[in-house]
Amino acid sequence: MSDFTVTRPYQSEYEIKRSRFVAVLGPVADGQTLETFLGALAKRHPQAHHLTYAWRIQTPQGLRERCFDAGEPSGTAGRPILAHLQGKRLINVCLAVIRYFGGIKLGAGGLARAYGQAARQVLEIADIQPHIAFKRLEARIGYSQFQDLARHLSPFGATIEKATYGAEVTVTIQVPEDQYQEVKRLLETP
Question: Looking at residue 97, which CATH number applies to its domain?
Fold first, then answer.
């Protein structure tokens, strides 16, 4: 089974018993982009009562996932959000649900359903794409080979990340994992 992801943020809102739930789904590649994503939401919603979330990130050491209830009763916020990410096999994403309390308590079951519904709604509007894992390939090539390199890489879905010029050109290329050997052979051909 393959995994899926999103390439841009999505937002939806859900209201129940005067409590407003703002769900935001966004791509995150690592701990730093996760912190940036959550920090931006906290700044955008300073009056919110709770900023709950769940995330799943593929790392070289394997899949990492976490959820956070943000002061809600244990298991009523982060866990339902994480369950939706797991069910959709989403990776390299964070789904945050910001709650503005409306004055009426929902109870533990009501909270879990509300957070789950908010997560479900944002996932319904998201353009979910298959996740493509990339590998870096570094090579030294001549200037004549470098001139047409981008055009030759395009059919493989590979892109030049960096080029350093010296006696030869040292290139760092982002290559879809399943195309790695093909691109490597392409670069070895004069």
Answer: 3.30.230.30
